[in-house]
Amino acid sequence: MAGVRAGGDDLTAAAIRRLSGLKPGKPAAIVTSDLSVNEFVLVHEVGFRPVGMVLGSAIHHVGIQLRRWSADQELTTLSRAMYLARDAAMSRMQAEASALGAHGVVGVRLTVEPRAFGEDVVEFLAVGTAVKADNPPPGGGQWRNAEGKPFTSDLSGQDFWTLVRAGYAPLGMVMGTCVYHVAHRKAGAALSTLGRNAEIGEYTRALYEARELAMARMQAEAAQLGAEGVVGVHLDAYGHRWGGHTTEFFSTGTAVRPLRPGHRIGRPALVLDLDG
């Protein structure tokens, strides 16, 4: 992507022009946001001002990886490709937020869409609303992460309000992915359950393993950030174009930390099930 460096990632010339018009002091600055009216108001209530809608995009050709017809196996090359493509989109969104002087991005949506440019060409798109805090966090420190970059969060505006009011701050949106090939059943095994209600144990074990790998990687990211927990976790499955026996499991959530020393997850102040 041709352009200037911002936060370690390229911004296109078109993005630079759009973001320049959003900076404070510009007479024609129009703040854009994908927050709902309720979310917009609630984000303001906890001391954050939306400063602009930010996005990051990465279009990748997702290739193939040889697999054994009769073996359960993670397709590590594809797992890595899917992760790095999403990470590129997230980093570019963060770079746009940095260019606006934002402290974080809330309401992040991370999507994958096939494109008609060719077989197995997909766009990875990250979109959210950049916000700037009116005051530093209670107890000192900063709202940005340890690298000095804006935090990211896929929490809604309502959940973000609940989190901050409960005494916690987002550290970053964390994710883990696993592309897994489930072995085809042998003819004898398939015939043994023909016409019967029966658990197919080998399929259960394979999919369980794949989900666990995705979840463990998300948790490892949170640990690297120094998080105390992950809230708003989603675990999704995507078939993409790999066929019925290959699935991507993708886990996301928002890593959080207490705003004050001694405030710990598990105490009544934090509601982990933010949708409940």
UniProtKB/TrEMBL annotation:
InterPro entries: UPF0145_dom_sf, UPF0145_YbjQ-like. It comes from the Bacteria. SUPFAM superfamilies: YbjQ-like. Belongs to the UPF0145 family. This is Heavy metal-binding domain-containing protein.
